[in-house]
Amino acid sequence: xxxxxxxxxxxxxxxxxxxxxxxxxxxxxxxxxxxxxxxxxxxxxxxxxxxxxxxxxxxxxxxxxxxxxxxxxxxxxxxxxxxxxxxxxxxxxxxxxxxxxxxxxxxxxxxxxxxxxxxxxxxxxxxxxxxxxxxxxxxxxxxxxxxxxxxxxxxxxxxxxxxxxxxxxxxxxxxxxxxxxxxxxxxxxxxxxxxxxxxxxxxxxxxxxxxxxxxxxxxxxxxxxxxxxxxxxxxxxxxxxxxxxxxxxxxxxxxxxxxxxxxxxxxxxxxxxxxxxxxxxxxxxxxxxxxxxxxxxxxxxxxxxxxxxxxxxxxxxxxxxxxxxxxxxxxxxxxxxxxxxxxxxxxxxxxxxxxxxxxxxxxxxxxxxxxxxxxxxxxxxxxxxxxxxxxxxxxxxxxxxxxxxxxxxxxxxxxxxxxxxxxxxxxxxxxxxxxxxxxxxxx
Length: 443
What we know:
By secondary structure, this protein is of the alpha+beta class. The protein is built from twelve helices and 16 strands. The protein has helices at 5-25, 54-59, 147-157, 162-187, 192-203, 268-285, 293-310, 318-323, 389-396, 399-402, 407-413, 435-440, and strands at residues 30-34, 69-72, 79-83, 105-109, 126-129, 143-144, 215-218, 242-247, 250-251, 254-255, 258-263, 378-381, 384-386, 418-420, 423-427, 432-434. β2 and β3 form a beta hairpin. The two termini are 23 Å apart.
């Protein structure tokens, strides 16, 4: 673990205070947080790659210890119950080294059903958090995933401690090493499949360790927002136009989420990438406490409209393009989301720790983040411009607007797929820090 042990100790103290408040508010004496279990493949004797429960990872950096659990009671040292079954088929993962261990009473549990023996001194009101499958058959006292308590914890999770920010910074550095390697591989003519392998090798992580499947989209594939295939075909020089790489890494359970777009050669598309990059930086500059994220979303559409005008693709004023929703055909997704233990971290629409959802703006009903920004939040800022056939076909049917669009030019741009630029941004008390750009150009 790279982040400072002092930061980790402060993190556990802050997390304990947060849990003390939540448990008292919902009248629980303690909480047992499960790490989760691997999910079996249907009608097979294998399992899907294991992902630890985020609430568990927030306490302890154990990403490879299924069946383990953390018992926390206010006023007591947290107990880490590490499942290490005797098994000659599979080898148990070693506990990570480091000063983090000093924050726990660590106990090795040989079987899952032995967990109950460590709960004898808990109060009558115990909350069991995590995948319910982990608690099946164990006859544990407690309430499984009480909704009000989970909501309280989800809301608070948006505010990252300095240790959590440090983990995201480490994940960012790892991912940028992969991005640099893939940029070189793209210039060398590698296939999407080969570039995916290059990214993993440069980051030192396996596919299942990434916070989300890396999007390695060459040419037209960049028009599919969550493009999931990796073609093994190498593209000859003249047919290689663009690459959109959306890929992050994990560190101690925390995610980074970075997108860069590359042009195969100098010229118009390379200039368009620079234009969107400049617009993206202007949007990042708007990240300050108190700003409502839907307002940033609207600002992103105005930036896209200005680019469409500058590039002579749409002959309407930027204001008209936004008001008439012309920009929706080019930017169909949200500007960003909370980032942390999950790449799309929870709590983005919660009104308060007590619950309730913030009203979704009619203009952008599918936003993942509607809360006002506050210090400690880490968000992604990821505007894009895409040439998506189905969306452009819908725009073309609106004849009043379609006559202002240069369709021949858009048809020529189809070969590039699209452009997306994405950074991870920390909201600070007086502004923001762009964690991605800081790591790209360290002082």
